[in-house]
Design a protein that fits this description.
This protein has helices at 17-24, 52-61, 344-370, 376-386, 439-451, 539-563, 569-580, 619-622; strands spanning 86-93, 111-112, 117-126, 132-133, 136-148, 158-167, 191-192, 197-199, 206-207, 212-220, 244-245, 287-298, 319-330, 406-410, 419-425, 431-433, 485-486, 489-496, 506-519, 582-588, 594-597, 600-602, 607-614, 631-632, 636-646, 652-658. By secondary structure, the chain is of the alpha+beta class. Among the domains are: 50-330, no CATH class; 344-399 and 538-580, no CATH class. Strands 16, 17, 19, 20, 21, 24, 25 and 26 form an eight-stranded mixed beta sheet that branches. The protein starts with 16 loop residues before the first helix and ends with a strand.
Length: 659
């Protein structure tokens, strides 16, 4: 088949029952040896075993449905790892690799977006003189978040969570063949003349000395994560976040030493798998990384013992014999505004109310136990009769004051005498600042995209031919529509009730931007939005939150132990998170200073002037800055505050989004 390159397509192919079980339903205690002769012979009859009931009972004990925590794919991070003499590579290409045809590599500077396809191939080469057996070969696209476990400690320990993992079944090892493209891929183990590689792997799952095998992959990048990726089901944690920071695990930790080349706008090490480092205002250890991963898993083998590490044991059913990944850049400029309209302070008040009710309940149960009433049902009846008269009133952080007008003073630089003016800043709901990359990097990345024809596969257009695709009616793109209105200016109103005041004719406004990284080692119970007042992000506010919820946590543990009553997992996780939650801010000076001419209007109360401040990026200041979109995940969030410095007054903060 020779498809028109202007009319490429790529189809989703559902796995067979055999393939699905082989890849997704294998448990850590799976001792079944998959037949080496390939796919099962259907129609054969087998004698019934007298121990079938025992086998069913044993199978139920490790059923992947009843015990998903036992699945091999859910325990990759816990498996032991060794490095066999296998040379592996992951190559991104501009279009899906075709058997027997030359390919063009994709630039590592390219920045992918939701709906894009990332395509390429992996190679595995045996560099020793012995046959190397393996059990599973996995090719996946993954998103990983990292954050320091103890921000105030000198110990470099990091929390790591994989929030996105999807497999290309046609690229993973399986018995049989899947070809989701219209191109001829060649027979299994046929040699590709372009790079002298063997396509696929044999059913014996062995790599012979000097043999170099290849498998092709294709992934479509999503806009949203599955609901299962957030344990609390928070909708605002589901949009896929942009790449951010540098993983402390990249290149064995060496990637954190990479510095940005000011002339290029980015930094990168001279080895495969190096991340692209930019000035994105990330803090040490905070990162969101996307990568294509290649893992080879094996069963216990005598050959493997020669490559054990110091702490490797032979007590395992599966072991990772090669683990390799290559990161790529990703951004998402279509993250919508928060679904939860309540400020973070109101959300904290709600959690405190839950804590207050539980504290009262546990204290009263403790008193009943001391009085000799041990029966739980009797305790419930007595507490229900008492009602809620004794609920505690705990201190809260106060109600938001983001909508209360601020006041500024204009001194002798503007007037002959000091003047106090009231300022009321207008809402920016539904608007967002535009994110941007360093200018040198953006030019190169745009050139890469223009030269790339590998945005593979939209689904094939409708035709009436005999070879028409069964997916003709499927949506042609998963990319979301435009969700944000660009924030190009800020409007505010100046007011005065002093009719005798000498009114200023112009003012100087210096816009600024502050970026806040909020993170915790436990699931964040808060949603951050533009209704959250700027003072919430102050260091003092976070210190107060940490200490307060540390006290709540200690008190609840004490009472729970005293009454032998459990604390709900969700509330306990929230308290741990708020106790360890941290916020670090960075200031950006990227806007042009504006001199605004004022036009005053007489009112019954005094005078009013409507002011419109343009927000214009200064190219010299933004040249090497990477302003990423606002986002929030279960453990990490990036939020922004726009600051307006009017005259010599302290800056006024306005929570905004960047998209």
């Amino acid at each position: 088949m020779s498809p028109n390159p202007e009319n490429e397509y790529y189809e989703d192919v559902l796995p067979s029952f055999e393939m699905h079980n082989f890849l997704f339903n294998r448990t850590l205690f799976d001792t079944e040896r998959i037949p080496q002769s390939g796919l099962p012979q259907y129609g054969e009859s087998y004698p019934e075993s007298t121990t079938s009931s025992q086998s069913v009972a044993a199978e139920n004990q490790i059923s992947p449905i009843d015990n998903p925590d036992l699945l091999v794919l859910n325990n990759l991070s816990t498996l032991q790892t060794i490095d066999l003499p296998l040379k592996v590579s992951i190559v991104f290409t501009k279009k899906y690799p075709v058997f027997g045809e030359p390919y063009e590599k994709e630039s590592p500077l390219r920045c992918y977006q939701p709906g894009d396809m990332i395509v390429g191939f992996v190679t595995v080469e045996n560099t020793c003189n012995e046959i190397i057996p393996f059990e599973m070969l996995l090719v996946s696209l993954e998103g990983t978040m990292t954050a320091p476990q103890s921000p105030n400690s000198t110990c470099s320990k990091y929390h790591r969570q994989t929030f996105l993992r999807t497999y290309d079944l046609s690229a993973c090892f399986h018995h049989g063949c899947i070809n989701p493209t219209p191109y001829k891929m060649g027979e299994c183990l046929s040699r590709d003349p372009v790079d002298d590689t063997l396509y696929g792997f044999g059913d014996l799952k062995q790599i012979f000395p000097g043999a170099k095998h290849k498998k092709c992959f294709a992934f479509r990048l999503p806009s949203y994560l599955l609901e299962t990726s957030c344990s609390s089901g928070t909708l605002d944690h589901l949009p896929v976040p942009p790449s951010f920071g540098v993983s402390p695990f990249a290149l064995g930790g060496k990637a954190m030493d990479i510095r940005v080349n000011e002339a290029l706008g980015y930094g990168r090490a001279d080895e495969q798998g190096s991340p692209i480092v930019t000035n994105d205002l990330g803090d040490k250890g905070l990162s969101i990384t996307y990568s294509v991963n290649l893992r080879l898993l094996g069963r216990p083998q005598e050959l493997y013992k020669r490559f054990y590490k110091r702490h490797t044991t032979h007590d395992y059913q599966f072991i990772i014999v090669r683990d390799f990944s290559v990161p790529f850049r990703f951004t998402n400029t279509n993250i919508p505004a928060c679904y939860d309209g309540g400020s973070a302070e109101k959300q904290l008040d709600k959690i405190e109310h839950q804590v207050a009710e539980l504290l009262v309940d546990l204290e009263e149960r403790g008193g009943l136990i001391e009085a000799g009433i041990i029966d739980t049902e009797e305790q419930d009846q007595l507490l229900a009769a008492q009602g809620a008269d004794k609920k505690k009133c705990l201190d809260s952080l106060g109600d938001p004051t983001s909508n209360i007008p601020s006041k500024i003073r204009l001194g002798k630089g503007f007037l002959k005498t000091d003047a106090e003016l009231e300022i009321d800043i207008q809402s920016t709901d539904g608007m967002a600042l535009t994110s941007f990359e360093p200018a040198p990097l953006k030019r190169v990345a745009l050139a890469c995209v223009k030269r790339s024809t590998g945005q593979l596969p939209q689904y094939r257009p409708f035709t009436t031919s005999n070879t028409s695709s069964i997916f003709e009616d499927v949506s042609v793109s998963t990319a979301p529509t435009e969700l944000n209105t660009e924030l190009t200016h800020i409007e505010f109103v100046l007011k005065t009730n002093d009719n005798a005041l000498v009114l200023p004719q112009d003012i100087t406004v210096k816009p600024g931007l502050r970026a806040f990284n909020i993170y915790s080692g436990h699931h964040l119970p808060l949603v951050f939005n533009e209704n959250t007042p700027c003072r919430f992000y102050d260091t003092g506010s976070f210190f107060k939150i940490n200490r307060k919820f540390e006290t709540y946590l200690w008190e609840l543990k004490r009472l729970a132990k005293r009454t032998n009553r459990p604390i709900s997992k969700h509330l306990y996780e929230s308290l741990l998170s708020l106790n360890k939650m941290r916020c670090k801010g960075n200031t950006l000076d990227v806007f042009e200073v504006q001199r605004i001419r004022l036009k005053w209007e007489k009112t019954k109360e005094g005078f009013v002037a409507n002011v419109k401040v343009p927000l214009i990026y200064e190219s010299r200041k933004t040249r090497n800055v990477h302003l990423i979109p606002s986002f929030q995940t279960c453990f990490l969030a990036r939020q922004y505050v726009l600051e307006l410095k009017i005259g010599k007054n302290k800056p006024l903060g306005i929570p905004i989004r960047v998209a």
